[in-house]
Amino acid sequence: MLTLRTFSLTTLGLLTGFAAAAQTAAPTAGPTPTSILSWVVWWMAGVVLLMAVMTGASVTSAAQRRYADQQEPEAAAQPAAPQAPVQAPAPAVAEAALVATREEVYA
């Protein structure tokens, strides 16, 4: 109940304030001149943005190179597919070959 009341009163107060501000006349003064401080702030913001973009590009490039380096050994470890189709051996022979292959992998 307390949260609902606080939210309602805050919303009503903001709405009343915005409505009152919208009805007041805007000052007729011309545009304010920019100061040296504003130019410095905008220049610093540009430098920070440039550094953020360069850092992101560098991190992305390094991650792509690392991913490619990790993929190369895995591709080299996989045997090449045989060119000619091989006839399937008898089931007992196929099981023996499968066990031998697993033993070679774990050795």
TrEMBL record:
<keyword id="KW-0472">Membrane</keyword>
<keyword id="KW-1133">Transmembrane helix</keyword>
<feature type="transmembrane region" description="Helical">
    <location>
        <begin position="40"/>
        <end position="63"/>
    </location>
</feature>
<feature type="region of interest" description="Disordered">
    <location>
        <begin position="65"/>
        <end position="88"/>
    </location>
</feature>
<feature type="compositionally biased region" description="Low complexity">
    <location>
        <begin position="73"/>
        <end position="88"/>
    </location>
</feature>
<keyword id="KW-0732">Signal</keyword>
<feature type="signal peptide">
    <location>
        <begin position="1"/>
        <end position="21"/>
    </location>
</feature>
<protein>
    <submittedName>
        <fullName>Uncharacterized protein</fullName>
    </submittedName>
</protein>
<keyword id="KW-0812">Transmembrane</keyword>
